[in-house]
Amino acid sequence: MSTTRIDGKAVSQKIKDQVKKRVDRLKQEGIVPGLAVVLIGENSASHTYVKNKKKTCEALGMRSDLHQFPDTLTEHELLSTIDELNNDPAIHGILVQLPLPAHIDEFKVILAIDPSKDVDGFHPVSIGNMMIGKEAFLPCTPHGIIKLLEHYGIDPKGKHAVVIGRSNIVGKPVGQLLLQKDATVTYCHSKTEDMESITKQADILIAAIGKAKFIDRSYVKPGAVVIDVGMNRDEDGKLCGDVDFADVEGTASYMTPVPGGVGPMTIAMLMENTVQSAEYGLTKDK
Ligand SMILES: Nc1nc2c(c(=O)[nH]1)N[C@@H](CN(C=O)c1ccc(C(=O)N[C@@H](CCC(=O)O)C(=O)O)cc1)CN2
Hints:
Layout: E1 4-5, H1 8-28, E2 34-40, H2 44-59, E3 63-69, H3 75-86, E4 93-96, H4 106-112, H5 124-131, H6 140-151, E5 160-164, H7 171-180, E6 184-188, H8 195-199, E7 204-207, E8 225-228, E9 232-233, E10 239-240, H9 245-248, E11 254-255, H10 262-285
Parallel strand pairs: 1-11, 2-3, 2-4, 5-6, 5-7, 7-8, 8-11
Antiparallel strand pairs: 9-10
Helix pairs in contact: 1-10, 2-10, 6-7, 6-10
């Protein structure tokens, strides 16, 4: 079977082009969408992602403020920073880059962000609204996956979607979004027994495990759509996903590569959420 490689770079560029038009319109009304990014510690991958977020904001004409701290920052100091950003009218979106140093409680931090500025879509209010299908900032990676499927005309309706992974950021929400698209959703995780027998039933397989090249073709039904959310380093230090691309290619109908698949969509959807937040401010004031 020939496998179509899903081009996340191209799709994310289209979304960013649309966001740019919305930014230009807002600027004509005197509003510059502003994103505040809070980065703590020296995690080099986090530094790369934050740099890319800032670069993308600038390319789209948005304001981007970086609040960078050493990992000696206390939880109290971080919560004070968030409080200031919550009250800054020039800031429409607040994002705290994860993971956080171990001494800071991630849940407390997410809870401190004003839900109207929660462009990561991680706040329980955002997640709750998403779960019941109400308007909400959707978490960027899961939303990006849905956009990729849409772009390639892959309709989850009636399909069996299997999500491997149950993180709050990706696994759980992507399953919910697929459910809203009328898929039948199964979650697999580290305690799942005989995972292969379940993943082999998947029409849409989402791999968000965090283990380099874990999924080979023995886990994949011929013709399945395989979405790889993994961001790992292989034995040679090269970036790779949770799926062994070379092995699964030829079995799947569609596949996302790593890099160039889901990753670029995460940043595009963050830009979309930020512009949406700024637009909401505009309609609220009118
Ligand atoms: N506050 C948040 N923290 C984290 C999130 C998030 O959405 N919000 N997600 C991840 C990291 N992440 C964004 O923050 C992210 C990861 C990967 C990519 C990406 O574009 N990857 C590229 C490859 C990049 C490289 O060469 O290293 C790709 O897949 O093509 C963007 C954003 C955890 N933390």
